[in-house]
């Protein structure tokens, strides 16, 4: 008997997960997509207090009012987005925000533009919705930044939405302000929805982050707590959009998860309203690690661009499969760039969400491989 539903049969599981499974428990894992830092203590305290106070019941489907108010203020202050708490949905990570948005707004047969190289989930979630994922190729000459030209080159008659991710996983590229504005204008002219995944917003080095929703009503802002506050296991994120979109997205959210767990929502409120020093400190450490990795790889002759955001370096390699297998033998786990799309062919993604010491050790091991 064939158990899988037709639309699910050709959905792929993540290759990144497969890499973990091959690695020994003592390996230096540079395949990870999560900060190695502990969740800041004040967030943990808020979570514990919430449990002790018996805050273990359902919240409103859209999320706790206090948290949504804090998100509205954050969006105003950081992103120049004017919204209200009715137009926010608190979700089970950015992942659920993405899933609910696509399933609520996209029809089977629609085309959805996704970044190439880009985060693995985009293609599969679009497929689950019965829609077609159309790659927007981005180029190394341009630091893999998405430009208006790249988007225009991929547009089809049936394009219903464009997913944009800046700072980008896997390349660390940060989109330029003029492209954010131009793509927003294009979305308005052609009635296309921009789904803007801003999960790495805070992990950005000498650049400024710009949000599409500041320029167009045709944009959904997706963000979360996993990366900025090292809260990956607490599973919380959010989305912001105009009421016409929120009304539809809420239907998928409500019948899928009802709401996010209440203690986590209380902890996330603390994350937003208390001091942001923990974020500043984490980003400063990421910057040191990025500089170490980029310098070491370039000295080895493994060409890479210095990324402006996220915690990944995307480096060029003549034979990624062979290199990755050799690295595994040296107890270093990496991911083939082609897992992120055709434009990732000939590249390897390295995550520097590992301690500085471990990164130094890993660089010595990679150097050995190159020298041999
Ligand atoms: C680009 C991107 N979007 C979304 C997510 C999912 O984030 P969350 O943990 O909030 O579901 C990730 C996680 O790796 C990611 O890299």
Automatic annotation (TrEMBL):
It holds the Pfam family Aminotran_1_2. The keyword Transferase applies. Keywords: Aminotransferase, Pyridoxal phosphate, Transferase. GO terms for molecular function: pyridoxal phosphate binding; transaminase activity. This is Aminotransferase. Homodimer. InterPro entries: Aminotransferase_I/II_large, AspAT/PAT-like, NHTrfase_class1_PyrdxlP-BS, PyrdxlP-dep_Trfase, PyrdxlP-dep_Trfase_major, PyrdxlP-dep_Trfase_small.
């Amino acid at each position: 008997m064939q158990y899988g539903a037709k639309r699910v049969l050709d959905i792929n599981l993540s290759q990144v997960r497969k890499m973990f499974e091959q690695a020994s428990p003592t390996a230096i894992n540079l395949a990870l997509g999560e900060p190695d830092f502990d969740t800041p203590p004040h967030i943990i305290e808020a979570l514990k207090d919430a449990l002790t106070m018996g805050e273990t019941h359902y919240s409103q489907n859209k999320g706790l009012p206090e948290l949504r108010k804090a998100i509205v203020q954050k969006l105003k202050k950081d992103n120049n987005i004017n919204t209200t708490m009715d137009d926010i949905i608190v979700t089970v990570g950015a992942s659920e925000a993405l899933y609910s948005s696509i399933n609520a707004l996209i029809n089977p047969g629609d085309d959805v533009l996704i970044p190439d190289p880009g985060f693995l989930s985009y293609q599969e979630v679009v497929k689950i919705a019965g829609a077609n994922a159309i790659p927007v190729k981005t180029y190394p000459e341009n630091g893999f930044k998405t430009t208006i030209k790249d988007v225009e080159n991929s547009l089809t008659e049936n394009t219903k939405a464009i997913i944009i991710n800046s700072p980008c996983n896997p390349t660390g590229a940060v989109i330029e302000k003029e492209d954010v504005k131009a793509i927003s204008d294009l979305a308005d002219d052609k009635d296309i929805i921009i789904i803007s995944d801003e999960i790495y917003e805070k992990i950005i080095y000498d650049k400024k982050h710009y949000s599409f929703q500041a320029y167009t009503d045709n944009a959904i802002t997706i963000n979360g707590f996993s990366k900025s506050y090292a809260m990956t296991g607490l599973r919380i994120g959010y989305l912001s959009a105009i009421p016409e979109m929120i009304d539809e997205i809420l239907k998928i959210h409500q019948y899928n998860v009802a709401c996010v767990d209440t203690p986590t929502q209380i902890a996330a409120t603390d994350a937003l309203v208390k001091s942001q020093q923990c974020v500043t400190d984490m980003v400063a450490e990421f910057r040191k690690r990025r500089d170490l990795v980029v310098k070491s790889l370039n000295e080895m002759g493994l060409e890479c661009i210095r990324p402006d955001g996220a915690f990944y370096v995307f480096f060029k390699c003549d034979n990624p499969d062979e290199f990755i297998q050799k690295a595994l033998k040296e107890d270093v786990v990496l991911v083939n760039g082609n897992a992120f799309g055709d434009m990732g062919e000939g590249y390897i993604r390295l995550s520097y969400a590992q301690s500085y010491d471990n990164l130094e050790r890993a660089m010595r091991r990679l150097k050995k491989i190159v020298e041999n």
